UniProtKB/TrEMBL annotation, chain A:
Compartment annotation: Peroxisome membrane
InterPro entries in UniProt: Alkyl-DHAP_Synthase, FAD-bd_oxidored_4_C, FAD-bd_PCMH, FAD-bd_PCMH-like_sf, FAD-bd_PCMH_sub1, FAD-bd_PCMH_sub2, FAD-linked_Oxase-like_C, Oxid_FAD_bind_N
Protein name: Alkylglycerone-phosphate synthase
Binding site for FAD: 177-183, 259-262, 311-317
Active site residues according to the UniProt entry: 521 (proton donor/acceptor)
Pathway info: Lipid metabolism; Glycerolipid metabolism; ether lipid biosynthesis
UniProt gene name: AGPS
Automatic annotation (TrEMBL), chain B:
GO terms (BP aspect): ether lipid biosynthetic process; fatty acid metabolic process; phospholipid biosynthetic process; triglyceride biosynthetic process
Lineage: Eukaryota, Metazoa, Chordata, Craniata, Vertebrata
Keywords linked to the UniProt accession: Acyltransferase, Membrane, Transferase
Descriptive protein name: Phospholipid/glycerol acyltransferase domain-containing protein
Family named by the database record: Belongs to the GPAT/DAPAT family.
Coiled-coil segments: none
Domain Phospholipid/glycerol acyltransferase intervals: 145-274
Pfam families linked: Acyltransferase, GPAT_C
Length: 601, 671
């Protein structure tokens, strides 16, 4: 399928080979934004009438008008859709890009292997970043980055990776693995101080399901596969992995392993570390894999756990054996309204205690509830609007819920029909004990649809002087409320102290429940009009928020990882000795720091 | 409601401070009854969980913390948890307040009547930039607030609630000593005005501590009301600030350390009395005349004091201090992550030292805003001239001292546009119980010589005057303490070399750290501050590595030396007692009467002229210093605690204090 052509450029007798891939094999890059989230055809905008709409055809929300978004947006941020715009630069200033620092000998050997590569500016910049605010902001300003990969290579299989890593070791070239590019920890950023040639190893061509073992319900999958493709391909055979991180449209299996990803439905299927049965990884020392696929072993510390969360510092994950499940027969959304966040958290805690969490259960705070409302599409009939009004009346007037206090939990049940219905009843009964009212399937489903489009909203904000970001943590149950309150308060204070002129939006939701605690996700956004360096201000506030999280018993990260963004807290988080353990593994596996993205340690 | 009569310090010589507002002014011109029943609707904490005083109790009894401790105590004692729980509930019943607005209104009415007779003015600071009550109101709305007033009089907490009521601010709940509860009716009245009662000592009682700390923390977390307590622990009988007790401060900080609240704000409040109601009572108490037990009838007898003039009261509300900002980079809150928060734990060293530092800082803030009257200056001078001095000389020296005090940052309330002779004479008039003027000479009164008195009685009478007078001098000690210690250090040091003077300074700081507010660990800073102040006033010069007294500095240094003279002497007498008299079986209880009679003997024999050593406060502080420095140690024999003396060490401390022995590191190291 690869359509490779080679051309030679005359350059003073210098050998200069570029193997260019045709566009067919790079579908992602071509259909995705170069300076924002997701597909190029899908975005929020305010149309000429001033109404918000979501373009494209890919999502349930696509092509819809969102009548209340503008009001919400302007009122929440003090932004003005008409007056204060901050549009992105249409294209990257190629002059801003540092010239490719190529290692000729490596290039020569790589060419000999026939593995495609490129040092086109577009390709390099596309793989020089993840989706941190500072990265996207720099791109929108057309600034680019201080250091980007010098070349990109596309191995097609495990053996290609082995060859590339061998050559990299031989020629002392720095390799940065690249999967879906959805990192939000600065993990893909090239260290500015890296003097060697940096090769971005793009795993996107390693995207096959190698085999499916229905007896053991596992599948062998190449690590470059993207989440939605994996699910689609497995679905064809009646299976699924059930691993659905919010980024699953774009993130890759290898990336999940490298960051210890977590999926929305982990209550049924488990997190990535529970799903993985076998990992094959190419390191500078050679290939590491276990000799069997036993479901659990007592063979010393699990070597998989050196790789899970290694963030590309030890090698490239090439193949993974992963558990699969038959597609559930029945699926049902649901939602519950609580009078306040405290009641909601208490209910989730009880659900976790009784170990009856549905596939997914998420609790949004009031800010997010209101935000969700702002994203309601135009109602198609008078009847629907009448019913909506009736519901609202029932909840706020009849039940006495304060619209500025109430919050919503969204639910997703999966399994056979009877069990789902039984399960549903159990959960709603618990909810009722905490004052929760069932609020219908629609609200639940909308919550999950929003999950995928919410990432697009940051780009809309950025068009109107609003910066936004999310971050997450995990925390013991008894500290959830204190942590949420203190972190929000800290953000508000820090913004004020740092001269942010408008009240910031802080919002959180409990996205996962565990026996001993929960995962909490924060959204944070503010209007940066009047600030000289909004990104810096933003980073200071986020830093303070992370300090606050740690001081309140939260973890450094639940599933985003550490990257470079949170390295400074690693020692405090895992102790000197713990850090030393990780370092010594790194020193043994990769003494020359070939995998030199400098994440984590 | 704000009165329009502001009285201010316009003299440009005076340190520019805030104006004060006399809250009695309006009371004198309008109905007290109306005032007592007026609409009272203070701003409350935004995170308030509304609950009644009774609900508070059940929250405390059902808390994880208390349940944990109950189980622990039950396991240790073998008693059933139910019984321990019952005990806890009894403790709580005895402790808890029953804040009722009607009682507050009753006090608003009666106190107004009393205040108007007792005091000329009750002045509350009125700032130019953002008034204190707006700041306080905001703080109360945003965070749990802890009010930390200085403690000189029984009046203090009624006065505080009275002022907060006047300004329509949330009424506090107040940690009060159990002794009040002895007064049946009044005790209950106080309870209903927000006081909760704690035993004076409950060191080892786990259950008591748990009930008490959970009670305070529950009120703090829920934002029930501002919490008020006295960092000094008890009323200062000497009118100088007592070294802070950190137990309660620890408790109110814990919810912040554990993330249960975002922040807690501390409000230092300085209450200065021109004349303290308990003035002569305190002196007698310090001299060992037992204090009358608090009883309602005793209080009624105290009505006599209603006929006296007690001048004015100044109350200064400081800026609320955020614990969060103080603790930044000092306390690692992650330390609290690894143990469930309801399990009581000893604070870490880091936390301990932070809390101690904060306590000292707050006490210093209280001290800095204490309003000083001219009489305080005069008392300081009179105490250095016990034989009396010419009125004109007193006036002259008072003016000189006024300059020195101001250059050291004293918060002086010197009347405007009044001839200094008038200022001096009106101060003398107000304190005519303490001083007399005859034939142009001013001297302390020596007590009433009624009939035949024994030499001891005469001595005690004189001591009462001296200690009463000292309680006024003590009010200005915080202004001069660092320069004064430096002055003594310069005097005692073997040479003028800076490091030698510093050695001496640091020795004195160690010695006197129970006597004065000298934060442990701040010695270098204190030394620099002292040098700065003395250099600024032109009293010393620092040349190369030497500290040299200037010609015009002689009088300043001699005054400063004189200020500490009685303390130096007093401590030496205590040392002398330990070396010469103390027997091996001396118990802690016998110590104070024994030192007192030792000192009395010395004075009667004409070998000692220092009366202040008769003060039990100084004796206790000196003992604490000797214990801290290891020269004396406590030994538990049967159920008695006896004091074991290391005579060599005590002796060398005595000599070092007297400047007869150079401060050597070796000496200190040996201790």
């Amino acid at each position: 399928v690869l359509n490779v052509f080679v051309f030679f450029g005359g350059g003073g007798g210098c050998y200069n080979a570029v193997i260019r891939l045709s566009f067919q094999c790079l579908p992602q890059q071509e259909i995705m934004k170069w300076n924002g989230w997701g597909y190029s055809d899908s975005k929020f905008l305010f149309n000429k009438k001033g109404q918000a709409e979501f373009t494209g055809k890919r999502y349930r929300l696509s092509g819809m008008i969102l009548p209340s978004l503008q009001d919400w947006f302007e009122n929440t941020f003090g932004a003005s859709v008409k007056q204060h715009k901050s549009p992105a630069t249409p294209s990257l200033n190629a002059g801003a890009l540092p010239p490719a620092n190529l290692n000729e000998a490596f290039l020569q050997d790589l060419t000999a292997t026939g593995i495609p590569f490129s040092h086109e500016a577009d390709d390099r910049v596309f793989r020089a970043h993840g989706h941190c605010l500072h990265e996207i902001f720099a791109l929108r300003e057309g600034r680019g980055f201080q250091r980007v990969p010098d070349m990109v290579t596309w191995p097609n299989c495990h053996n290609d990776v082995v060859k590339i890593v061998e050559l990299a070791c031989k020629h002392n070239v720095c390799v940065i693995p690249y999967g879906g590019g959805t990192s939000v920890t600065g993990a893909l950023e090239c260290p500015p101080e890296e003097m060697r040639c940096i090769v971005s190893l793009d795993t996107s061509q390693m995207n096959r399901i190698l085999w499916i073992d229905e007896k053991n319900l596992v599948a062998r999958i190449e690590a470059g596969i993207i989440g939605q493709d994996l699910e689609r391909l497995l679905n064809e055979g009646g299976y699924c992995t059930g691993h659905e991180p919010d980024s699953m449209e774009f993130s890759s299996l290898g990336g999940w392993v490298a960051t210890r990803a977590s999926g929305m439905k982990k209550n049924v299927y488990g997190n990535i570390e529970d799903l993985v049965v076998h990992i094959k990884v190419v390191t500078p020392r050679g290939v590491m894999e276990k000799s069997c696929q036993g479901p659990r072993m007592s063979t010393g510390p699990d070597v998989h756990h050196f790789i899970l969360g290694s963030e590309g510092t030890l090698g490239v994950v090439t193949e993974v054996t992963m558990k699969i499940r038959p597609i559930p027969e029945y699926r049902k959304y649901g939602s519950v309204v609580f009078p306040n966040f405290e009641a909601g958290v208490a209910c989730l805690r009880e659900v976790a205690k009784q170990r009856c969490a549905p596939a997914s259960i998420r609790l949004m705070d009031n800010e997010q509830f209101q935000f969700g409302h702002a994203l309601k599409p135009q109602v198609s009939s008078i009847f629907t609007s009448f019913v909506e009004g009736l519901k609202k009346f029932y909840i706020t007037k009849f039940k006495g819920f304060d619209p500025h206090q109430l919050c919503v939990a969204t639910l997703l049940f999966e399994g056979d029909r009877e069990r789902v219905l039984q399960h549903e009843k159990q959960v709603y009964d618990i909810a009722a004990k905490f004052g929760g009212l069932a609020a219908g399937e629609d609200n639940g489903q909308r919550g999950y649809i929003l999950t995928f489009v919410i990432a697009y909203l940051r780009d809309l904000g950025l068009d109107y002087y609003v910066v936004a970001e999310s971050f997450e943590t995990s925390v013991p149950w008894d500290r959830v409320l204190d942590l949420c309150r203190n972190v929000k308060e800290r953000i508000i204070r820090e913004c004020k102290e740092r001269g942010v002129q408008f009240q910031p939006l802080t919002s959180c939701r409990v996205t996962q429940t565990y026996d001993a605690g929960a995962c909490v996700y924060f959204y944070f956004a503010f209007n940066y009009r009047g600030l000289a360096d909004p990104v810096h201000t933003y980073e200071q506030v986020e830093h303070a928020a992370r300090d606050e999280i740690l001081a309140n018993g939260g973890s450094l990260s639940h599933h985003h990882g550490v990257g470079k963004l949170r390295k400074e807290w690693m020692k405090e988080s895992i102790s000197d000795v713990g850090l030393g353990m990780l370092r010594s593994v790194k020193e043994y596996v990769d003494p020359d720091n070939i995998f030199g993205n400098r994440n984590l340690l | 409601m704000a009165s329009t009569t502001l009285y201010s310090q316009r003299d440009p010589m005076l340190k520019k401070r805030d104006d004060f507002e006399d809250i009695l002014e309006e009371r004198r011109n309008s109905s007290d009854l109306k005032y007592a029943v007026r609409c009272y609707a203070p701003v409350l904490y935004k995170g308030l969980t509304p609950c009644k005083a009774n609900m508070l109790k059940s929250m405390v009894l059902q808390s994880d913390h208390l349940r944990y401790v109950i189980n622990q105590v039950s396991q240790e004692s073998g008693e059933a948890p139910d019984i321990i729980h019952e005990e806890a509930s009894v403790i709580l019943e005895e402790m808890a307040h029953r804040l009722k607005i009607s009682t507050v209104r009753f006090f608003a009415f009666t106190l107004t009547k009393a205040f108007k007779t007792l005091f000329q003015h009750i002045c509350v600071n009125e700032e130019e930039y953002g008034s204190w009550y707006i700041n306080l109101q905001q703080a109360i709305q945003e965070h749990p607030v802890v009010l930390l007033p200085s403690h000189r009089s029984y009046m203090d907490f009624l006065l505080m609630s009275y002022i907060l009521y006047t300004y329509d601010l949330a009424l506090p709940v107040i940690a009060a000593g159990m002794d009040f509860m002895g007064m049946k009716f009044i005790g209950e009245m106080l309870r209903m005005s927000g006081a909760f009662f704690i035993r004076r000592s409950f060191g080892g009682d786990k259950l008591y501590w748990a009930v008490f700390s959970e009670y305070v923390k529950t009120m703090l977390r829920n934002g029930f009301a501002p919490i008020e307590f006295f960092l000094e622990g008890t009323r200062s009988r000497t009118c100088k600030s007592l070294t802070p007790k950190i137990g309660l401060l620890n408790i109110v900080m814990e919810p912040f350390f554990k993330g249960e609240v975002f922040d807690v704000h501390l409000v230092p409040i300085s209450i200065s009395y021109e004349r303290i109601l308990e003035e002569s009572l305190y002196a007698r108490e310090l001299l060992g005349v037992p204090k009358p037990k608090e009883s309602t009838s005793g209080l009624l007898k105290a009505r006599r004091i209603l006929s006296e003039n007690y001048g004015s009261i100044h109350v200064y509300f400081g800026q609320p201090v955020s614990i969060r900002s103080l603790a930044q980079d000092k306390v690692n809150r992650c330390k609290y992550n690894l143990v469930p928060r309801h399990i009581p734990r000893k604070p870490t060293k880091e936390t301990q030292s932070f809390v101690t530092d904060t306590a000292y800082r707050i006490v210093r803030l209280q001290e800095d805003s204490m309003v000083l009257k001219p009489w305080v200056l005069m008392a300081s001078i009179l105490l250095q001239n016990l034989e009396g001095l010419e009125l004109s000389l007193l006036t002259e020296q008072t003016l000189w001292l006024r300059g020195l005090a101001q250059s050291c940052g004293a918060f002086l309330d010197w009347p405007d546009h009044t001839p200094s002779a008038k200022v001096v004479s009106s101060s003398l008039a107000l304190h005519r119980g303490l001083v007399c003027v005859s034939g142009g000479r001013v001297s302390l009164v020596l007590g009433e010589p009624q009939g035949l008195v024994t030499p001891e009685e005469a001595l005690f009478n004189r001591a009462v005057s001296v200690l009463s007078c000292a309680s006024y001098r003590n009010q200005i000690l915080h202004v001069f303490i660092r320069p004064a210690i430096l002055a003594v250090a310069i005097h005692n040091a073997a040479s003028s070399k800076k490091d030698e003077v510093f050695n001496c300074f640091s020795f004195l700081c160690k010695m006197f750290s129970d006597e004065f507010i000298l934060c442990p660990g701040d010695t270098v800073q204190d030394f620099e501050e002292a040098c700065y102040l003395l250099v600024k006033s032109g009293s010393v010069q620092t040349l190369q590595q030497n500290i040299v007294v200037t010609d015009r500095g002689q009088s300043t240094l001699s005054f400063l030396n004189g200020l500490l003279e009685s303390f130096l002497q007093g401590y030496q007498v205590v040392c002398q007692y330990f070396c010469e008299e103390a027997c091996d079986s001396l118990t802690e209880k016998q110590y104070i009467p024994a030192v007192r009679s030792f000192a009395v003997k010395l004075i009667l024999a004409g070998n000692l002229r220092c009366y202040e050593v008769l003060s039990s406060d100084m004796q206790k502080n000196a003992l604490a210093a000797l214990l801290r420095l290891g020269a004396v140690s406590k030994v538990k024999v049967a159920d008695q605690v006896t004091l074991k003396v290391n005579k060599l060490a005590v002796n060398s401390l005595e000599d070092t204090l007297g400047g007869r022995l150079p401060t050597q590191k070796a000496v200190l190291a040996r201790l």
